[in-house]
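Exercise 7.
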Amino acid sequence: MSDIMARAYRMKFLGSMAILLLVACRSAQGDAADDERALTKLVQDLNVALAKADMDFLERSLHKDFMLTNSKGTIEDRAAYLANRKTGRIQYESKKSDELRVRVYGDCAIVTGRDIEKGKDQKGAVEGQFRWTRVFLRQDGRWQLVTAQFSPVVGP
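Solution. The predicted structure, written as C-alpha cells, is:
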C-alpha cells in the first residue's frame, strides 16, 4: 500500500470515527433532555396523585427504600408515607411545583424545586411554600423516587 493510499485510508477511518462520535454525543444529549422531561412530568404527576390520593400511582412511583424528611423534620419510610396518605391523615387540596432544576447522573437524578401547597394534616390546615430536593433512581427503565426532603420557605 502506498503512503498516499495509507493516508487516505486513515483519513476515511478517522472521519468515520468522528461522525460516529458526534452521533453518539448527540444521542446522549437527547437522552438527557428526555430524562429531564420525564422527571419533570413525574414530579407533576406525583402532585396530581397526592391531591387525588392515587395510591396505585404512588406505590409504583416510590422506590422500595423511599424515605421522606418532611418540613417539620419528621422522617417517614415508604410504609408510613403511604399509610398517611391512604388513611387521609395527610390530604392535599392543591399542590403545584415550580422552579424545577433537574440534574441527571446516569441512572440517578437530583431534582430541586418549590411547592406551593394547601391541605391538612392531623394538626390542621397546612398551607405554604416549601423548597425541596428529591432523588430519583432509574430501575427497569423507569424513574422512582428514593428520597425527598422539604423545608418551609420563610419570609417575604
